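pasting for ref
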Amino acid sequence: MSCQIRKFFSWLLLIGAITIFALIGLGILDTPSASAAIRQLEEAPNQMVYQVRQSLKDQHGNTWQTVAFKRVRPDGNSSFELRLVGFPNLVAIDHSQPLTLTNSLGKTLTAADTSSNIFKEGSQPNVGQYDLQPLLSELQAEIPLKISLPTLKGEAISLSVPSSLVAEWQTVANY
């Protein structure tokens, strides 16, 4: 009796292994890559922008688009900024407050709001832009971040940034 049970489980294990290998071979069990494509745009003659975009969910399940970009001007000066875009009418960002970035080790950094550089006439309450250039040396690609985005209602929006996205930001910054 125990021999039959052992034989049954051996066959079950063999069939399971074959199924898993077949699914991997077909690409069904592959995990999607977290990397995003780095885009290169020529905004003006000799002015380049390198950017990476990714969507992140906040603590309420709302989706935010993150756009980290480096702008290289014709004179050779560059900037590195992070733009956060939420759905209109869901949140109003407090542009008088900085963005707070806290790594998983508890180190907190702040980034100045540069949203006024985006729009010529007024600002969009669901769009914020922040200067990450001064923080680049302190962002470590292997350590995830938690972003705290201040709002006019007082409850900060919280976004978890995986280490893979921090690594992409570093790659863009080094272009």
